[in-house]
Amino acid sequence: MASSPSRAAASSRYGTGREALLRAAVHVVAHKGLRGMTYRAVAEEAGVNNSLVAHHFGSRDALIAAALGWASEQSIAASRLQEAAQQEDTLTEALMALLLAEPELQVFQYEMILEARRRPELAGPVSELYERYVSALAEGLEAFGVGGSVRVVARALFAALDGLVLQFLAGVDREEIAAALEEVHRVIILRRDRPAGSAGF
């Protein structure tokens, strides 16, 4: 039986295999919310049969957890948090490029964070999401020369980045977000230049 034109288009857009299903799941949640994510919706978006989704993930919850992990990996890789923290003029450009290129990744993750308030079983995967981001930023800060409690600094800085991303998605002016991101980077530089053990942030 030949594939329909819509299914062929979906397959070419997302590729094939497990990653295509994860991309499709992210798209569905970003546009319909978690309640709109069914095997059927993901399969239609990816251009495959429903049974393929079940074959790869076994359950809807397993698909949700896998999609959350995949989305954070994609975001961290695209934003280059580890290297961006080490270089002048890189952090703002990298994060703005990510926001402009794949806003669905960010929307999906915020949807999952909000849903975790209603579904305790998502609390663990959402906590892991934040830990991956903080760890990536901490590695970059440490390589950049930031001393002291690097992980605490990384968590505080990521909280600022996280809030700015949410503001961008809410429609705050792009130039204002970029200016704020540059300020975050200046804080990173100041932290590196401060002698170890000095008081204050």
From TrEMBL:
Gene3D superfamilies: Tetracycline Repressor, domain 2
SUPFAM superfamilies hit by this protein: Homeodomain-like, Tetracyclin repressor-like, C-terminal domain
Highest taxon above the source species: Bacteria
Keyword Transcription (UniProt): yes
Domain (HTH tetR-type) ranges: 15-75
DNA-binding region per UniProt: 38-57
UniProt keyword Mitochondrion, yes or no: no
InterPro entries: Homeodomain-like_sf, HTH-type_TetR-like_transc_reg, HTH_TetR, Tet_transcr_reg_TetR-rel_C_sf, TetR_C_31
Alphabetical keyword list: DNA-binding, Transcription, Transcription regulation
Protein name: TetR family transcriptional regulator
Species this chain originates from: Arthrobacter nitrophenolicus
Highest classification ranks of the organism: Bacteria, Bacillati, Actinomycetota, Actinomycetes, Micrococcales
